[in-house]
Amino acid sequence: TAGFTWSGCSDNVVLGVALSRSFVDATERSRGSSARSLMNLHNNEAGRKAVVSHVRVECRCHGLSGSCEVRTCWRSLSPLRVVAASLRDAYDGAVEVRVGRVGTRHHLLARHAHFKPHTDEQLVYVDASPDFCSGTVGRRCEWPGGARAGPGACPSLCCGRGHEARALVTDERCLCKFRWCCAVRCRQCRRTEHVYTCR
Questions:
Q1: Structural domains of the chain, with CATH
Q2: Residues whose CB is less than 8 angstroms from the CB of residue 114 and which lie 6 or more positions away in sequence, other chains included
Q3: Distance CA 83, CA 85 (A)
Q4: Which of 71, 95, 139, 179 is the most interior residue, by most CB within 10 Å?
């Protein structure tokens, strides 16, 4: 169409994908067809597909006083946070697989025969993660009503088992003053700290 040109400065996604295949996948290819190697190769490719699927077209207008007589467009990679959010969603929906022989080659297959096979865009795993919840019994956590409800907050860290609260009373030096010459005098203060631990 008239008034539209492709610029020659697009991100070279094809070259980036090719270089990442030769660089990132080299170690896994040298390890043969173990379950972990096949999983890593698949996930590397899924990551590359996520980057490619988020390539966007950006344009800039040229012309007198803001008119768009000529528009120059180029392909650009999306910001990392956009691709990372997509990969995080893929991670949350990862599919468990096993290695099976198809003909003379090893392939990743669904863990159970009645499951649908994974797609090229899905992330896969071969070993389920251990249950970390059992390791948090007795562990100190942050007050659940605090301003920060992060991963260290009791509801999150204690895996829904609840928590115990206790008051820890300590005596410590406070209100210290320097006395001329060469002495520091302090008072003894009692401090109460609330400690929360997972059940």
A1: 4-129 (no CATH), 133-198 (3.30.2460.20)
A2: none
A3: 5
A4: 95
Per-residue pLDDT, 72 = 85
The chain-wide mean pLDDT, for the chain, equals: 87
CA atoms within 13 A on the CB side of 109: 10
Determine the distance from the C-alpha atom of residue 112 to the mean position of all C-alpha atoms in its chain, rounded to a whole number: 27
* Separation of alpha carbons 91 and 100, rounded Å: 23
- Contact between 109 and 115 under an 8 Å Cβ cutoff? The reply is no
pLDDT digits (tens, 9 = 90+) for 109-143: 888 877 888 899 999 999 988 888 888 999 999 88
Which pLDDT tens digit goes with each residue over 154-186? 888 898 889 999 999 999 999 999 888 888 999
Rounded to whole angstroms, the Cα distance separating 184 from 173 reads: 11
Compute the distance between CA of residue 96 and CA of residue 111 in angstroms, rounded to an integer: 6
**Three-point CA angle 120, 125, 131, nearest 5°:** 150
Predicted confidence at residue 32, as pLDDT, reads 80
Residues 103 and 22: their CA atoms lie apart, in Å, by 26
